[in-house]
Design goal:
elongated; 4-stranded antiparallel β-sheet; single chain; alpha/beta; RNA-binding
Length: about 800
RNA sequence: GGCCCUAUAGUCUAGUGGUAAAACGACUCGUUUACACCGAGUAGUCCGCAGUUCGAUUCUGCGUGGGGCCACCA
C-alpha cells in the first residue's frame, strides 16, 4: 500500500471515531465500568516517544476492555503546575516569575500551555489512536484540581496528618527552592580534602574536610567508638582554628575510621549525616549559609561571600595561620539539584509536612494488596518504603503552583484554614474566613506564600477523575471504590504511585486502584535512554509519517510489562507489513466468499483449521486478560501470518475457485469467521487498519458502528476429536516437505509432484487429501514412506 | 554497601527438565486469479563455573556482563 493511503485511511477513521463519539464515556451506562487512572504528562513540548509508547500500551488495555463489554473510563489529563512549566514559560515568554505577581504569572502559564502546547499534544495523541474520552479532561492546575488539592490539605490537617515545623530542608541555592529527595542526582565533583589543624589541650588534632567554609558552623567532632587512636579524647573539647570555637569530641559509629584522618567535623547543615548527628546528639543548630547561597553573619568576616569564594578565602586564611597541614585533590560524588546541577545545601525553614513514617508497615501491606504487572516491580515500591527517613515535605517556595489554603495569625502564629466552600483560594489575594484569631483575638493575618509540591496534587488524580463525573449517574458507581488500574513507567513508582497510595489510604482507607501496570520502556537504538544530549531520540511524529500510527502501536506492543527495549526499527517494518498483509488478505477473502453467519456442514480442512483458531482465541484472550500484551500480539500475529495466510489460504484456494457449492459454503464461513476473529483480536493494537477492514467488509453483516465497540471473539462451536492436532500437524508437515523439495530443486512452487504417503497417514488425512493434492500440486498420491518426487 | 531485573542466531526477542523458535538481516530459488511492502527454502544460537538430575539452555548457587532502585559519599 502506498504511504499516502495509510495516512489517508488512518485520518479517515480518526475523524470517524471523533464524529461518532466512539470513545465517549456513557455516564448513564448500565455496564460495568473499567476505569483507568491515566498519567498526566507534563507538557513542555511535543508528544515524545516515551509518551507514545506508554500511552499506546495503556490503550491496548482500554480497547480490549471496551470490546469485552465494559464501559471504559479513560480520561486525559495534563500535569502543569510545577517547576518545569514555570521554567518553560519564563524562557519562552522571557519573563521572571519573581518580578511578577503570582496571579499574573499563573495566568500567563495557563494561557501559554493551553494555547501553545496542549492543542498540538492532543492532536498527536489522537493521531496515535488513543481512545480516551477527551471531554473528561483535567489539568493539575485547573480550578478543580486546585480545589481538590486544597481540600485534601484541609482534610489531612484535620486528621492531624499535617504539621508545620522548622526543619532542615534540602535547598537549591540556584533555584531558590527546597527540593525533594527525588529531585537529587549524584554528580562527581572535583574537590579537595583540606587537612585542618584543631587544638585539643594544645595538642594538634588533624581533621580532613571538603568544606572548610563550614568551620564557623561546627557543632561537634566525631570518631568511631572502636577507634583506639581517639578514645583518649572522649569528653574533651577541640578548638577550631580561625574561629576559636570549642566543640565536644564524641564517639559515633557513623564515623568511618578509614576516611580522612578518622575524625570528622559535624556542622548542622553539612550533609544528611550531619543532620542526623545533630538530632541524635541534640547538638545546637548553626546556620552558616543563607538561602541565597552566601555566608551568614555566623561566618564573621566571610559574611556575604558565596560558598566557593568563602571556601577559597578560608583556605588562604588557614594557610596564613599555619592551620592547614596539607591538601589532597579528590573526586567525590555529591548530591546536586537535578535541574540546575548546583550542589545542594541544607537550610532551616518552616515547612508543611505530611506525616507518614509511622505507616511503613501498613504501606507495605497496602502495596501487596495491589496486583502489580509485572509482580517484581513491587520491590521498587517496598525498597522505597523501607528506606523512608523523612516525612513528606510538601512546601515549595516558587511563584507558580497551588497555594496552601492557610493564613497565620500575625501575633500568635495560629494556623487559619480557608473556608471549604470557597475553595480554591489564594491566601495572598483572598481574606481569611474569620476576622479575629480564635486564640489571641488578633486581627492581623499573614498569608502562606509557599505553594504545594506538584506531587501533592498529582497524587490525587483518582480523586480528580472521579470529581469530573460528579453530578452524573456514573459517579455513584465509581466513588467509594478503587479505580481499576493505573499504568505508568517504572521511573515514577516511588513517587507518583507511592504518594497516590498514601493519599488514598489517608483520605479513604482504601487503595487508589486494584491493579498497576508498569509499561514497557523504550530506549534509543544505542540501548540507552532517549535523550536530547545523546541525540538518540526518535520522534513519534516522524515514525507515524513514515510508517503509520498502527505500525508505531505494533512496535509498542512488542515489549513486555516492565521491560526495556532498544528501539527496533524492524518492528516498524514488520508492523507496516502486517497492515499491508491483512488488508490484502481481507480483499482476497471477500473477493471470493459469500458471507454467511450460520455454520454450514464443515469440510474437514475447515473444521481442523477452525479448531486451531479456537485455540488461538482462548490463548490470546487469556494473554490480554492477564495484561501480557506482547504475548497476545505475538500469538495473534503469528497465527495470522503462518497458520492463516501461509497455510490455510493456500489450502483453501483451489476449493474456493473450483469447489462444489457445499465446499464453497464451508470455505466461505471459515474464511469469514477466521478473518473476523483475527481482525478483532488485533483491533486493540492496530485500531486503524482493523477498522478499515471492518467497515469495508464486515459491517454489513455485523452491524456495529465500529469494530472497537463490537464484541470480543469467543471460540466457535465445533465438533472435535483427539486426533485433530495430529492431523493438522501432519498436514502442515507434508506441505512443508513438498515446498522444501521444490525449493531445493529450484523449481516453481507450482511444479507438479508425486506424493507418497504411508497408509496410516492417508487414513488419518483421508477427508483432506483433495485439498492436500491441490496445495502441493500433486498429480497423484502413492502409498509408501513419506516422499516427494518431482514429476 | 544492600536489593531488584536480565543474559538464547549477525540484531532484537519467544520458548522448553529430553540440545531450540519467530521477525529483521544474509544467502539460494520462485512468482503473475490477495499481496514484490510477495512466496518458498538454506545457513546460523542457549554468557562462564559448580550443584541437583538418567538427562540442564531451562531448576539452585557462585562468578562475569548489561539495566535499574536504595543507602553512603567528612
Amino acid at each position: 500500500m502506498p504511504k499516502t493511503n495509510i495516512q489517508e485511511i488512518e485520518r479517515k477513521w480518526q475523524k470517524y471515531w471523533e464524529d461518532k463519539k466512539i470513545y465517549k464515556f456513557d455516564t448513564k451506562t448500565k455496564k460495568k465500568i473499567y476505569s483507568l487512572d491515566t498519567p498526566p504528562p507534563t507538557i513542555s513540548g511535543k508528544l515524545h516517544m516515551g509518551h507514545a509508547f506508554g500511552d499506546a500500551q495503556q490503550d491496548f488495555i482500554a480497547r480490549f476492555k471496551r470490546m469485552n463489554g465494559f464501559e471504559v473510563l479513560n480520561p486525559f489529563g495534563t500535569d502543569n503546575n510545577g517547576l518545569p512549566t514555570l521554567r518553560l514559560v519564563e524562557k519562552e515568554k522571557n519573563v521572571d516569575s519573581k518580578s511578577m505577581s503570582r496571579e499574573e504569572f499563573i495566568e500567563l502559564c495557563l494561557k501559554t500551555i493551553e494555547e501553545e502546547y496542549i492543542p498540538e499534544f492532543l492532536a498527536d495523541s489522537k493521531r496515535l489512536g488513543i481512545s480516551a474520552d477527551w471531554d473528561i479532561f483535567y489539568s493539575t492546575i485547573d480550578e478543580r484540581s486546585r480545589r481538590v488539592s486544597q481540600q485534601s490539605f484541609i482534610d489531612l490537617y484535620k486528621l492531624g496528618r499535617e504539621y508545620r515545623i522548622d526543619a532542615p530542608a534540602l535547598w537549591c541555592p540556584t533555584c531558590r527552592t527546597t527540593i525533594a529527595q527525588v529531585e537529587l542526582v549524584d554528580k562527581d565533583i572535583h574537590s579537595q580534602f583540606s587537612d585542618i589543624v584543631f587544638k585539643v589541650d594544645n595538642k594538634d588534632l588533624i581533621i580532613s574536610t571538603t568544606r572548610p567554609e563550614l568551620l564557623p558552623a561546627i557543632v561537634a567532632i566525631f570518631y568511631h567508638p572502636d577507634d583506639k587512636r581517639f578514645k583518649p579524647l572522649k569528653g574533651k573539647k577541640a578548638k577550631t582554628p580561625l574561629f576559636d570555637i570549642e566543640v565536644p569530641i564524641l564517639p559515633d559509629p557513623k564515623a568511618d575510621p578509614e576516611k580522612g584522618t578518622g575524625v570528622v567535623m559535624c556542622c548542622t547543615f553539612g550533609d544528611q549525616t550531619d543532620m542526623e548527628w545533630q538530632r541524635e546528639h541534640k547538638l545546637p543548630i548553626k546556620m552558616a549559609i543563607a538561602p541565597d547561597g552566601t555566608m551568614t553573619g555566623l561566618a564573621g568576616k566571610y559574611k556575604g561571600l558565596k560558598i566557593k569564594e568563602a571556601r577559597e578565602q578560608v583556605i588562604q586564611d588557614l594557610k596564613k595561620a599555619g592551620a592547614l597541614k596539607s591538601q589532597k585533590k579528590i573526586t567525590h560524588p555529591v548530591n546536586v539539584c537535578e535541574r540546575c546541577s548546583t550542589e545542594i545545601e541544607f537550610i532551616e525553614k518552616k515547612q508543611w509536612c505530611i506525616k507518614y513514617l509511622d505507616l511503613k508497615e501498613k504501606l507495605l501491606k497496602w502495596g501487596r494488596e495491589i496486583k502489580w504487572h509485572p509482580d517484581h516491580m513491587r520491590n521498587r515500591y517496598e525498597n522505597w518504603v523501607k528506606g523512608l527517613k523523612w516525612d513528606w515535605c510538601i512546601s515549595r517556595q516558587i511563584a507558580f503552583g497551588i497555594p496552601f489554603p492557610v493564613w497565620y495569625c500575625k501575633s500568635c502564629d495560629e494556623t487559619i484554614l480557608a473556608d471549604e466552600k470557597q475553595l480554591p483560594i489564594d491566601p495572598i489575594e483572598d481574606k481569611p474566613p474569620i476576622k479575629k484569631c480564635p486564640k489571641c483575638n488578633s486581627t492581623e493575618f499573614i498569608p502562606e506564600k509557599d505553594v504545594m509540591n506538584t506531587w501533592a496534587t498529582s497524587s490525587l488524580t483518582p480523586t480528580i477523575t472521579k470529581d469530573l463525573l460528579k453530578d452524573t449517574p456514573a459517579y455513584k458507581k465509581i466513588t467509594n471504590q478503587p479505580m481499576s488500574i493505573r499504568r505508568n513507567g517504572q521511573d515514577i513508582i516511588t513517587f507518583w504511585d507511592f504518594n497516590t497510595i498514601v493519599k488514598s489510604q489517608l483520605h479513604e482507607n482504601r487503595n487508589p486502584w486494584n491493579e498497576l501496570y508498569i509499561n514497557g520502556w523504550i530506549l534509543g537504538k544505542d540501548g540507552h535512554k532517549m535523550s536530547k544530549s545523546r541525540g538518540n531520540g526518535v520522534s513519534p511524529q516522524d515514525v507515524i509519517e513514515d510508517y503509520g500510527a498502527d505500525a508505531l502501536r505494533y512496535l509498542s506492543a512488542s515489549v513486555k510489562a516492565g521491560d526495556a527495549l532498544p528501539f527496533p526499527e524492524k518492528e516498524l517494518i514488520a508492523g507496516k507489513k502486517f497492515v499491508t498483509k491483512i488488508i490484502n488478505a481481507a480483499n482476497f477473502v471477500f473477493m471470493n466468499i459469500k458471507p454467511k453467519k450460520t455454520q454450514p456442514t464443515l469440510h474437514e480442512t475447515d473444521r481442523l483449521f477452525l479448531t486451531q483458531l479456537n485455540n488461538l482465541t482462548k490463548s490470546a484472550t487469556d494473554a490480554f486478560e492477564s495484561y501480557e500484551l506482547s504475548k497476545a500480539k505475538m500469538l495473534v500475529d503469528a497465527f495470522f501470518w503462518h497458520t492463516f495466510a501461509d497455510n490455510y489460504l493456500e489450502l483453501v484456494k483451489y476449493r474456493v475457485y473450483n469447489g462444489t457449492a457445499t465446499e464453497k459454503a464451508s470455505a466461505s464461513y471459515t474464511l469469514y469467521q477466521a478473518l473476523l476473529a483475527i481482525t478483532k483480536m488485533m483491533a486493540p493494537i492496530t485500531p486503524f487498519i482493523t477498522e478499515e477492514i471492518y467497515q469495508t467488509h464486515f459491517k454489513k453483516q455485523e452491524k456495529e458502528t465500529s469494530i472497537h465497540t463490537s464484541s470480543w471473539p469467543t471460540p466457535l462451536k465445533l465438533k472435535t476429536s483427539k486426533k485433530d492436532q495430529e492431523a493438522w500437524n501432519t498436514l502442515l508437515e507434508i506441505i512443508a516437505k513438498a515446498r522444501q523439495t521444490k525449493s531445493e530443486a529450484k523449481v516453481s512452487m507450482k511444479a507438479e509432484i508425486y506424493l507418497t504417503l504411508p497408509e496410516e497417514t492417508q487414513t488419518l488425512l483421508k477427508p483432506l487429501l483433495e485439498d492436500l493434492k491441490a496445495v502441493t500440486s500433486a498429480e497423484e498420491i502413492k502409498e509408501g514412506a513419506l516422499k516427494v518426487d518431482l514429476v
